[in-house]
Fold this sequence. Notes:
The protein is α/β, with parallel strands linked by helices. The protein folds into three domains: 1-123, 2-Layer Sandwich (Beta-Lactamase), CATH 3.30.450.20; 134-285, 2-Layer Sandwich (Alpha-Beta Plaits); 309-553, Alpha-Beta Barrel (TIM Barrel), CATH 3.20.20. The chain is 45% helix and 21% strand. Helix 13 (359-374) runs parallel beside helix 14 (397-408), helix 14 packs parallel to helix 16 and helix 20 crosses helix 22 (547-558).
Amino acid sequence: MRPGEALLADLLANTTELLSFYDRDFCLTHYATTLKGVYGGVVATGAAIWAIYPSFLDARCRDEFLRVFQGGSPASIDLPPSSGEAPRSVFVFGTANGVGIIESRKHGGRSAAEEQERGILLHLATHDVLTGLQNRRRFGEQLQQALAALGEPKPKAALLQIDLDDFKSVNDTLGHGAGDTLLQLAAGRIRDALQDGESAYRYAGDEFAVIQLGKEQPAEAERLAGSLVDAFKTPFVINGIPVFVGSSIGIAFGPEHGTDGEQLMKAADIALYAAKTDGRGCARTFNRSMLLLLEQRENLRRSLRTALERGELYLEYQPLIRPPASVIGFEALLRWRHPEVGIIPPSVFIPIAEADGLMDQIGRWVLEEACRQALTWPSSLTVAVNLSPAQFLSGTLTDTVAQVIDAVGIRADRLELEITETVLLEKTIDNIDTLNTLNVLGIRISLDDFGTYYSSLSYLKNFPFDTLKIDQYFIADLETDLKSQTIVRSIISLAHGLGISVTAEGVETSVQARWLIKENCDCLQGNFLGRPLGAEATSDFIRRSPLRVVRAMEANRAV
């Protein structure tokens, strides 16, 4: 039991107060032993508040109670007197999950012990049990009060929304106990960075907030944000293990960016999203252009959900060339033609589809469409289809691929599935099992963008890839950069030693093509050899000889 929970349990067992707590559904969750002694069997976990305090059905008491329940400040409410009973009143205060009530059956002053006990209860109601920071409900109350108190002579109020970077990975790898410890340590670093006029809150999960009042803005908010970002650059040590977790921060000012709490929180949240998008471990201040970009993104998200059924998604096919002049297949490339915006790059809409859980549906359509198109080509040609890491999460990828192959009637060895190392970095064991199953089906597997991620040689040892695709980053300056030449030459040699074919992506010039051919690169892909084509144009490309490759070979022989 956490310290705060233990303290609450001890109070409930030993307090002389008539104390009770209720959730958002007005149901009893915790109560003092003394309350049951007064009201008997009606007091039980799950009982409605009206069963214990029917006076709250009275219009006057109900309105005051609901005001507190909906986020208002604590209030004392005199209950209507009952025949033969002493006058009663209740003190109602908000908690993180509902309300708490302390009933009093006598008037007059309280003893010092009673006041101390009530203070402890109010602290528990307004502070996060784990970190000791003020809680979400208290944050909402104080933010609204701060905005209401702003006037022309006063400086702006600043809100800083703080989110921990990579917190989930700590929970997943070290366990929730370590995650709780990390939250406590993070709260300590936030608290240590504060000065007068600055208050910190645990908003939710790994999200924190700071309200800054009476400061010159924006300089003071930027100073604090910089201090917080720097504070999280030092690793946390949990059970002897150094843990690196950064902080991303969104800043907004009231009343400039919002005149009520909800508006200001939305602005700070948009700025936090911008900080995450810009690489994390940084702070960003809200501006209107952020809102415009977010609205555009939300519009794209809504449009993408219907893009497939409206026929806005389509495929283009880029030739794969084996020197000297053989077309061995095509890579299917997904495109989106938005009716208003026009062509939207995959780098924009694929992350949206992944985040919204649309990749299973879209990925199946791409696979089926590409396989059907491949049936119109000579039976020796292959079709390569990219797989998103999100498609591995459902656990149905192998079934989907097998169903598509059977439904379309294409040979399994004509299909090549391209993955990036991101797939191998996430849920590695499960994903390797999936790849092995696909390999058993006879499907070729290609490791795309090789050299740009971790490029762990253990992947090449543990899984029999059919193809390595060298990322175009190394091909772009192949003509002049000796380091790129050495890296590409080494990858080709390594792959061939393991019995793996090599494809070079992004071949844009004849010099690049000649160099790669000379180094025995198995396959070339790029605009110099053939730009992405519509489905109808692929047949014509297959029929005619790719003269550019022939010329490259001829130039190579002349060297």
